[in-house]
Structure formats: C-alpha cells, structure tokens
Amino acid sequence: MLDGVEAFQARYLFQDANTGEYRWLDRWPDANMTATPVLLQPLPVSIEVDIRLEDGQVFHRFFRTVANPWL
Questions:
Q1: pLDDT band with cut points at 50, 70 and 90 for residue 69
Q2: Other CB atoms closer than 10 Å to residue 53's CB: what's the count?
Q3: 44 CB burial (10 A radius; 0-12, 13-18, 19+)
Q4: N or C, where is the chain less crowded by C-beta within 10 Å?
Q5: Which of 56, 57, 61 has the alpha carbon at shortest distance from 11?
Q6: Backbone phi, psi, residue 33, to 5°
Q7: DSSP assignment of 26-47
Q8: How far, in Å, CA of 53 to CA of 11, rounded?
Q9: Alpha-carbon span 65 to 38, nearest angstrom
C-alpha cells in the first residue's frame, strides 16, 4: 500500500476504567484484557502511528476512536 517504508510503529492510549488514569500501551489489547471476550473489551481512546520512509520522511498521526457500542 505504501512503498519504501523503513519503520512502522503504533501505540494505543488506554484509560483505566478503575482509576481513570491514561497510559500508552505498545500492544493492543493489553495482556490483562485477553481473558475478556472481544466484544466486551474497551477500545483504545486514541491510536498514535509513526511511519518512517526510506527517504527520511516521517508521518506522525493520531486517530481518535469511538466508544465501543457493544458495551
């Protein structure tokens, strides 16, 4: 879909339902959520994506997600 990609990185902003605290995770879903059925898992609040091309260009984007309608 995109030629010349040297590196791709994504991380996920998560809000803990118990504490309300926000933290960035490198993997989604978090290991603590794997026992929860997929339809009941919360979505990340935001996804951050970095794409570095071979020619040195860097694309840095944030994508806000919607509330999980199944919860």
A1: low
A2: 14
A3: buried
A4: N
A5: 61
A6: -100, -5
A7: SSSS-GGGTTS-GGGSPPPSEE
A8: 18
A9: 16
Please provide residue 70's backbone torsions phi and psi, each rounded to the nearest 5 degrees. Answer: -85, -15
Q: What is the pLDDT of residues 6-56, one digit of tens each?
A: 999 999 999 988 899 999 999 998 888 888 898 888 889 999 999 999 999
Among 57, 42, 67, 47, smallest CA distance to 6 is for 57
What CA–CA distance (Å, rounded) separates 13 from 64?
Answer: 9
Residues 6 or more apart whose Cβ sits within 8 Å of residue 5: 51, 52, 53, 54
